[in-house]
Design a protein that fits this description.
two-stranded parallel sheet; about 220 residues; alpha/beta; 5-stranded mixed β-barrel; about 45% helix; elongated
């Protein structure tokens, strides 16, 4: 009779270990696919944005031309695309002039010297995104159509001066990069590490020999 509670506790421990192992294995599996998914959508764009070295303070831009085109042959590039993995069949193409004068210092009564003229204007480094954060119709209304000649803030690349975008935040870009690298990899390492400790006795002994053992007093 005394062995029954012990048997029950052992069964509960084994059941808990089984389901915990199942959760850890699923977490490791999902983490790998999440990281692979984040590479083209977050990691690569963030690295490209940081390497472009955009000026963190918005400068002064003015739209010079806006073309709305249809057909893949007419949409070799687009200022904004809703979806980064498919060819654009309809596109907005906006060109701008920009001055390195900060937008907050812009004075409409003074003559502005445009450092770069008639260059392509993109919503972000990739020129694409997904709703609701990217809405190309709203983007075109804000920067194209009848707004030509009206100054607005924009961000230019110090590494590639012909790159001009409407949105950029160094803090947000770095935060997204760090989180997309850290979270999936840490979850994968923690899950695989715990599973290895439970089911690979040799791994535990290998780790112990690297631990410093203090002499007994």
């Amino acid at each position: 009779m005394t062995s029954k509670p012990s048997f029950t506790l052992l069964s509960l421990a084994e059941t808990a270990k089984f389901y915990t192992s199942l959760c850890l294995g699923t977490t490791a599996f999902v983490s790998v696919f999440a990281f692979l998914f984040l590479i083209p959508f977050v990691v690569d764009p963030s690295i490209t944005s940081l390497m472009a070295d955009y000026d963190t303070e918005p400068v002064t831009c003015v739209a010079t031309n806006h073309v709305y085109a249809e057909g893949i042959s007419n949409c070799s590039w687009a200022s904004c695309r809703e979806g980064c993995t498919r060819e654009a069949t309809r596109c907005h193409q906006i060109h701008v002039n920009y001055s390195r004068v900060p937008f907050r210092k812009y004075n409409k009564d003074k003559i502005v010297h445009w450092e770069v003229t008639n260059t392509r204007f993109l919503i972000n480094t990739e020129g694409c995104g997904y709703p609701p954060s990217v809405n190309c119709s709203q983007f075109a209304k804000q920067y194209g159509y009848n707004t030509a000649g009206t100054p607005f803030p924009c961000y230019y690349s110090r590494m590639y001066p012909e790159f001009v975008v409407s949105r950029y935040s160094w803090d947000d870009t770095l935060r997204n990069l760090v989180l997309s690298l850290a979270i999936p990899n840490l979850l994968f390492i923690a899950s695989v590490g715990l599973l290895s400790y439970w089911y690979c006795p040799g791994c535990g002994r290998s780790c112990q020999k690297y631990m410093h053992h203090f002499p007994d007093k």
